[in-house]
Design brief:
It is built from eleven helices and 15 strands. The protein has 371 residues and is an alpha/beta fold.
Length: 371
């Protein structure tokens, strides 16, 4: 039992991105999906799927990150220093006579939660006779058919029902869910050409994956700091996703990334993903690295990004697959480099900060170019 508990802890903590905040002190908690507006420090949300004059709306669906989501965790903090607060400043802009609005997708719990699945995959798909995660059988199980992923329940009155699951990995099921969301907006009167998919982290990589695999569902993708795998140099999750995107003849997407992303995912910063911007239809915007005098913080157009979180990745790590998830399976190649990098701001969080607002014009121009 102790081994199972420890395995669960190791497998779940590593890939997660925690954005915990006491919203009551800094903003307003919004429990559900909706259209987000944010102007001069004041935010408002029109909850649900309905909005006035849908035919003249350009809808940018935004997906948060992470591998999975729980129903009890749905919602977001409406405040200036948060991604919905930053992107919400785009809402209300007129582009070719249409109004752009941001829709925060808090329905991702319907795609499932992979927490317990990671442990079940390790237990049922052993590597060399051992119950280990981060090994080929574990990846194949996690990415594979939904053998262990339990389907969540929704109300019969819910306008967005749960599409069939295709994978144990909840993240992979999000494509069908976002397709169903786009279909709802089309049914309500918004032309499909006016619907864009976007996201941060796993949400960003997911938006690129959706645009490459299902180009007729959305007009284009806007990806913020895209990555969504684990820290192993042997990771198949990385290979599968990037191979899917590479297979596309065209990738209509605007991609923001940085060399100092600072997440744990193996080779997930712009040094290794810049080729995405070279695909037909794609545009790439490189975000700044640490550029303050002490080399620890990030400044954009004279405004310092107030990033509390420090880098937790970006240095070289070697992984012994024979030891799977165990602590001793991982070796830091240069511990001194890691110590220095851990003192620096995590670039992954730039879109969550008001310093990102200069790039909102780039998003608006990109959307205009696609209409």
């Amino acid at each position: 039992m102790k081994k199972i508990i420890l395995l669960t802890f190791c497998l779940l903590i590593i890939p997660k991105l925690a954005f915990a905040v006491d919203c009551s002190k800094v903003g307003k908690w919004v429990n559900g999906s909706g259209f987000v507006y944010f102007d001069e420090g004041k935010g408002k949300v029109i909850k649900g799927f309905d909005i006035d004059d849908p035919a003249n709306k350009i809808i940018m669906i935004f997906n948060f990150g992470g591998w999975g989501a729980k129903k009890k965790e749905k919602g977001f903090c409406l405040r200036k220093e948060w991604v919905e607060g930053v992107l919400g400043q785009l809402s209300g802009r007129k582009i070719k006579g249409k109004e752009l609005v941001i829709w925060s997708n808090q329905e991702l719990w319907k795609a499932g939660n992979s927490d317990t699945v990671t442990t079940k995959c390790a237990m049922k798909h052993k590597y060399k006779g051992k119950m280990l995660g981060h090994t080929p059988p574990w990846y194949e199980c996690l990415w594979g058919p939904p053998t262990y992923l339990k389907k969540v329940k929704t109300s019969k009155k819910d306008i967005l029902q749960i599409p069939p699951y295709v994978s144990n990995f909840a993240y992979k099921n999000r494509a069908a869910l976002n397709t169903a969301i786009a279909d709802i907006f089309v049914e309500k009167g918004t032309p499909r050409n006016q619907i864009f998919i976007s996201g941060h982290s796993c949400g960003g990589m997911g938006s690129l994956r959706m645009e490459s695999l299902y180009p007729d569902v959305f007009n284009a993708a806007i990806a913020l700091m895209p990555n969504c795998w684990d820290k192993s140099e042997h990771t198949l999750l990385r290979k599968w996703q990037l191979d899917e995107i590479k297979s596309a003849k065209k990738l209509n997407a605007l991609i923001f990334h940085s060399e100092t992303d600072g997440e744990i995912d193996f080779q997930s910063d712009s040094r290794y993903l810049r080729w995405l911007g070279d695909m037909p239809g794609a545009e790439w915007i490189e975000l700044p690295n640490h550029n303050t005098e002490d080399g620890k913080e990030i400044v954009i157009d004279g405004v310092q990004c107030k990033i509390e979180k420090r880098m937790r990745g970006g240095w070289e790590i070697k992984h012994n697959q024979d030891l799977g998830h165990k602590k001793k399976a991982w070796t830091i190649v240069n511990p001194d480099e890691m110590k220095e990098m851990m003192k620096k701001a995590r670039g992954h969080m730039i879109p969550y900060k008001s310093c990102f607002t200069p790039y909102l014009d780039d998003i608006a121009k990109f959307i205009e170019s696609k209409l």
